[in-house]
Amino acid sequence: MTHLSKTYYRLIVKTIFLLMVGMLFACVKNKDFEQLEPACESNLVANISIEELKEYYQDETLQIQEDWVIEGYVISSDAQNNFFSVLYFQNSTNNPTDGLQIEIEMLDSHLFFEVGNKILIKLKGLYLGRTRNQFKIGGVFTSFGNVSVGRLPYNQIFEHIFVACGEGAILQPDVLTIPDLQDNNAGTLVQFQNLEFSAAELGNLFAETEAETERLLVDCEDNELILLNSGFADFQSILLPEGRGSITGVLVKDGSDFKLVIRDLTDIEFDQERCEDFVDEFTSNTIFFSELADPDNDPEARFVEIYNSDTAPLSLKGWQILRYTNDSETVSSSTELTGHVIDGESTLLISPNPLVFEQVYGFLPDVDAGTNSPADSNGDDNLVLVDPFGTVIDIFGVIGQDGTGTDHEFEDGRAVRNLEVNAGSPVYMFSEWQIFNDSGEAGTVNLPQLAPDDFSPGIR
Description:
mainly beta, Immunoglobulin-like, 29 strands, 12% helix, elongated
């Protein structure tokens, strides 16, 4: 249906509605009459769940022949035209475990099926199918002999869908994170915290005119989620908000991808600073190197340990460890820490060989940095910890100086930070370290270290 025909349809519906209201008032001589209540259903009882109905599906569209009744709570709305000819409903008002959609040939369906309404659907005669991993029910659509779920014709909608009597329920969206999404979350009302539109999206409208448009949402750990907007939505021409915050909507499945559809702009509350500002606010020198390892008996068991002396966790989005090999004054290799969070008063372990690390120390490291990385230093290199803005937060060694025979050599040994140290330093401070090696200068301990007994990864 074109945008013009949609507009014409609405005009007809509203005209008929006004005529009916006029006729009603013309027939009433006394204004002391009871307000008309919409018809509701109090006798239908559900006898199958959404989960059980989905199990009935056998990899091809089928017509339901059983006298089944399903129930759910409406979570979508076409009041702002971001949903079109579809109703989404879920199996409970909060903490839903399943959701479903029904295709209907109806505009302005929110006038009949409001968000929070409990609906009961007679399933006999309807079709059940799945398109790109999204389950749906409705009428039938046939193209070149292929049968799929289509829109339920308008004159059949009220033969199948009934609103239960009683007040509409208040829905509580399920608060989720992007990495934790599961298939049973599809078709339910969800909420995400600490999301923002990607920097590349800023300055764009919610949607292109008359075109379904995808906009990229990200969290502060760079996990991604697509926001799906209609080109006919009332908010289509509004600029995307620049902040960070919560967003609520109906989660849909599109193949292997999850996408989010909002009902209106009140579903978005981006009232906080963006992630980069958030990270900047909490960036501090409470993150620092705590142990560096080059075991004499097993160079593949090397590692770098960093520690967070604060009590609060910190996202390491944009953080890096840089390695300056020997006397190099330019970066030889680096390890990105984006995607990792270091808990309060906890360590983060970076290894060039996680399998060997596990064999030697009995557990897996947090980060697989690979060979020739900063975690693979042979003890005479210089290491630098930098925040997302390139600021040096902590350093081991002196850039431009080969560590061999110096007070920053840990070849065949170990460098461990003194326990009283609780902050990083952008200048190497030998007094903050206890260093074991095979040939370092006075003040270091010329005693090679053997793994695992001489090392304490994960213990500060």
